[in-house]
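hey can u check if this looks right to u? its 185 residues, i copy pasted from the old doc so theres a chance i mangled smth
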Amino acid sequence: MEEAELVKGRLQAITDKRKIQEEISQKRLKIEEDKLKHQHLKKKALREKWLLDGISSGKEQEEMKKQNQQDQHQIQVLEQSILRLEKEIQDLEKAELQISTKEEAILKKLKSIERTTEDIIRSVKVEREERAEESIEDIYANIPDLPKSYIPSRLRKEINEEKEDDEQNRKALRMRMAKLGKKVI
């Protein structure tokens, strides 16, 4: 029961860790996109500033200044967005580390209580021995309408083995007695 709970906890930790890793990956892609936009806007603002220096007309100059201010504002927004995303990634990486630590602890505990194949085989052997101690007659006594003359195959086999053992013992005794030169009954 405890083993099942630990396995369930470990699977949950692995799932949570995977979700966090996916979220980190998405945020890193977003940062890269924002950095590209940032570079593009900076180049555009620099180009417009350079063009603004060359324009003498008042109306065009005002439009260029206005566009330049909008670009500067977008640059600042992108910089803040990049910093925020980087902070979120750091927080997610810390959470991932905590989950990994939790998963490792669960795995260690799971390995300490996990039954090995040898333990399972040993327990099956013990169960068989316990069943063997239970009398065959007791088992078959509970079956209704079973003829009294019925002998289970397992019991027949045991009886035949005992008879064979008795016969082998008698033969061995006869041979020993014959070697000693005594007459066997």
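The helical segments are 2-54, 58-113, 117-133, 136-141, 153-180.
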